[in-house]
Amino acid sequence: MSESIGIIGAGSWGIALAYLLSVNGEDVTVWSRSEENVRKLQQDHENKDKLPGVILNESVKFTSDIEKAVWDKDIIVIVVPSAHMRSVCKQIKPYLSNDPNKKQVIVNCSKGIEEDTLMIMTDVILDELPGTDVAVLSGPSHAEEVGKGMPTTIVVGAFDKDTALYVQKVFMNDVFRVYISPDMLGIEIGAALKNVIALAAGIADGLGYGDNTKAALVTRGITEIARLGIAMGGNFETFCGLSGIGDLVVTCASMHSRNRRAGILIGQGKSAKEAMDEVHMVVEGVYSAKAALKLAQKYNVDMPIVEQINAVLFDNKSAKDAVAELMVRDPKIETHNLDW
Questions:
Q1: How far apart are CA 78 and CA 63, in angstroms?
Q2: How is residue 132 annotated by DSSP?
Q3: What contacts 154, CB < 8 A, 6 or more positions away?
C-alpha cells in the first residue's frame, strides 16, 4: 500500500524528491505558492526552469492550495528556503490531523539556521507545530543527480527510531540509499554550515586558487563545523558522516552547488546580491553566514573561515584580503587532544 505524501515546495529539490517518491510508488502531491508554476507543472510535469529534463510520473499531482497538500497525508515533506520555514509552518498548521490514531510525519529537507532565533529548522517546525512527529533528511544529494536516478546516499534523523525507520523505508530504493541517526542537531548544523564553507570554496575558485586551497578550506571547514556542532550538543561522528564531510565535499566541489557558484562570482568581484541574482536560486549560505557567526560567539567557538566570509559578504572586505588574513593568523596546533 502506498503512502500519501505532500511535498511543500516545487523548487529543484522538491521536484527531485517528487520524482524519487513517485518512482517508489507513493501517492505524491506537490504544492507551490505560484498558481502559474502549478499550471506549468500540470501541463509539462517538469520544472523547466529549476530542474529541466526530469519528467515526473503522470500520477504526481500539483496544487497551489496548501490544504490539499497537507490534509490527511501520511508524510509532509517541507522543501522551502529556510527563511520561509516559519511562515509555511503557520500555513499548514490548520490542516494537520488532530486524530491521535493518524500519525503524520513532517520531514524537513531545508538546510539553514533561522537568523533571528538561531534555531535549526526542525526546532522552528516544533516551535510552530508542537507535538508533531518530525524528521530531517540531509546529505550529499544534488537534485540534478537524484532526478536522473544516479546513486545517492543520505541520512534521516529523528528523535524516535520508529519514525526514522519509517522514513527510511519510504524514501529508500536501489539508487537512493538511506541511513538513519538520532543526532538531528548534528545533521542540521552540518547541513546549514556547509553552505557557508562552500561559499568560501567558490570564492577561492573565483580568485583562481587551486586544489591546495580547496582542500584546506574543506578540511578546516569541517573542523569549524564540528567544533560548533559539538559545543551545541551534536555528536562528532555525525560530522564525519553524510551530513558532515559528505555534504561539505559535494557542495564545495560541484558546479551544481548554488553556494559554490555564488562564491565564484564573489571571488571574481561581484557583490553578494549580484551573485545571488545571477545564480537565480536561493543561496542559503549567505543567510546562514550571519547565524553561524552569532552561534560561534554564543558558544565561544573559534570559526575564522566563518568570520572572514561574513566580512566579505557584509563588510565589503575584499576576498583576497580575507584569504590572506586566514593564512597569516597566529601559528596553531592542528589536533589539540594528542600528546607529543
A1: 15
A2: -
A3: 137, 138, 139, 140, 141, 171, 176, 177, 178, 179, 242
CB contact at 8 A, 294 and 118 = yes
Query: Which of the 8 DSSP states describes residue 173?
Result: B
Is pTM beyond 0.90? Reply is yes
At residue 154, the 3 state secondary structure works out as: strand
Where in the sequence numbering do the catalytic residues fall?
Answer: 194
- Strand, helix or coil at 176? strand
- Rounded distance, CA 54 to CA 30, Å? 15
- Rounded Cα–Cα distance for residues 193 and 258 (Å): 14
- pLDDT, tens digit, 9 for 90 and up, residues 304-327: 999 999 999 999 999 999 988 998
With bands split at pLDDT 50, 70 and 90, how would you rate the model's confidence at 336? Answer: confident
Q: How far apart are CA 7 and CA 14, in angstroms?
A: 7
Please check whether residue 45 is in contact with residue 76, taking contact to mean a CB–CB distance below 8 angstroms: no
Closest Cα partner for 138 from 236, 30, 248, 230? 248
Closest C-alpha among 226, 122, 120 to residue 164: 122
Residue 64 is classified by DSSP as: S
Strand partners, 181: 157
Place of cell 577561492: 204
Q: C-alpha distances in angstroms, 257 versus 61, 228, 253, 283?
A: 28, 23, 8, 9
Residue-wise pLDDT tens digits, 224-245: 999 999 999 999 999 999 999 9
Spatial neighbors of 168 by CB under 8 A, at least 6 apart, are 156, 178, 179, 180
For residue 43, the model assigns a pLDDT of 96
CA distance 23 to 16: 11
pLDDT tens string 45-86: 999 999 999 999 999 999 999 999 999 999 999 999 999 999
At residue 83, the pLDDT reads: 92
The closest alpha carbon to 187, from 250, 132, 233, belongs to 233
Q: Which of 213, 192, 210, 249 is nearest to 322 (CA)?
A: 213
